[in-house]
Every structure is written in structure tokens, then in C-alpha cells.
Give the backbone structure.
Amino acid sequence: MTLYKSALLSGLLIVGWAFSTSALAQSSWYVGGELGTGLAPGVTMDGVSNDRSSLCDEFINPLYASVPGCTDPTRGSGDGWKAAFSGATGAIGSVSLGYYVMPWMRLEIQATSWSASYDDAVPVGSATGVNLEKLNDEIFIARERLGTFNAIGGFLNVYVDRPIGSAGWAFYGGAGAGIADMRATYSSLWVRNRDPDKIATGSDQPNAEEIRNNLAGTLSDGSATLTSTAPAIQFMVGLDRHWTRHLRSGLVIRYVKYFELDSDELQWDPLRTHVPNLRRDGSEEVHGFMKTSDFAAFSVGLVFMRRL
């Protein structure tokens, strides 16, 4: 949030400088607002974790220390998975403060709120490393769920207005850049086959039967609110009607691109039906790291603007 606040402060200073150096009258100040609805495109989440192979889990394999690699300092190397979610509908709202630096150009600082409800649960579509072997052999359920996505952003925008005829209509286009505070609700469920004979993990180990029995039917269930602060850009086109010298309203079409959401807040508890650690002494806690650059929004909104 510090970066977010710094960006808003910088925007205020920039616009304030433009206001103070402009020779235009005070009526060039304006406030505005927007309410709208929109669509969010599909999202592919990339996941990795600092988990180890189940053979290296002391709760599953008490002889883990004799397995090569189970005590290496690096964990999760080469492992990963992907989950592709469908698009969603959402709602947007904004408030803004702006200034006409020229009769046809205005600068604006804007605070926006975008919320989309994905509510989509999908099977894991692809995986690498140990996760690929698990999906091919013994995983009965591997399902990821994306719930809601919320983004609160602060933008510095620039617009160019072009009057249409003499009836008070105006077309405009604009672009902006800023910072967004993003939050996404997420969950993950992985379940092993209940039949020990279907468990391939540890088949070459001296205690193979113990490993199969300990692993069969286990589940890893995690949920979290993934949070991240990242840059965002937006592009707008709109059509307004000037009702009076001070009041205008109309429609705006907006595209917002949110850059990378990167979070380490996913934790499976239970992890393979035990506490989210690999060691019985509580060490080697396991987390999931989720990342995507796919969050965006297309929206249509009703806007109003009033000169002060």
C-alpha cells in the first residue's frame, strides 16, 4: 500500500503543478464519477510451491533422510502447475478530480474500484516435475478455484476532447497509468486415490507398503486471499453531452490492464492430511506461490462531470 499511496501523491503533485501554472480560470476545475459494468477475460494462474516429493515428507515416509535429494536446501525446484479459468462479469466505479489545461485537453487523477466474480473451479490442466508424475499416476482430484477479484487503483489520466457539431456533444479519448492494489480469493484441492495399489510413489523404496498406506486417500486443501500491488494502465473512449456550462454526462468504454499479481499466501492445511510442514518437528513449512498477468477489465459506464 505504500507504493500505492506514493503514486497517488505523485499524481496529485503533477496535476497540482499543472493547475498552478495554467492561466485558465478556476472554472476549469472539475469533479467526476462513473458507475458501470463489464467483462473480465479468462485468467491462467501459474503455481509453484516449496513442497518436496511425498517421499521426502516425514509424515508419509519416516525413512525420508535416506532418499537422495530429500534434504537438499532447494525445495520445489522444477515443479509447477497451471489452471485456466473462464472469464467473469464485474462492476466498476470511480471518482476523479481534473483540470482543463487547454480547452481541448484535461489532466485528471482518478480512484477506481473494479470487482469481478469468477467463481470458477477447474481441474489442473498441466503440470511439471513431480506434480506431473502425481497427476499421471495417483492424483484422484486436482482442482483449483478462483473466486472474486478486486482491484482498487489510483491513476493519472490525460484526455483529449473533440466537440461534435453545435448541439453540445463531444467525443473524447484518453489514457492513464497508475498503481492497483489487487486481491483475489483462491483455493486448491488435491486428493490421492484411496486404493493403496494405485499409489506409485515409493514403489522402489524398502518401506514401499508403508508409504502407499500412508499416502492413499490423503488430501491437500488450501485457501487464501492472494494480494499484490502492481502497475496498471487504462484506455478510454467516450461520448458526452454538455447539458449546461458546468454539467456533462455520457458513456465511457474503458479497458484496464492490471500487471502481475504475484503472491506467496496460499497454504495447504491440511497438507497430505497432516499439518502444513514436511517435518514432525514443525520445520519446512509449505506454501504455494501463485502468479498471473491476465487480470484485465472491459467496461461500459455512465459518467458525469461537473465543473467547479
Q: What stands out?
A: The first strand starts at residue 29 and ends at 40. Confidence is low (pLDDT under 50) at residues 1-15, 17-26. The chain has one domain: 2-307.
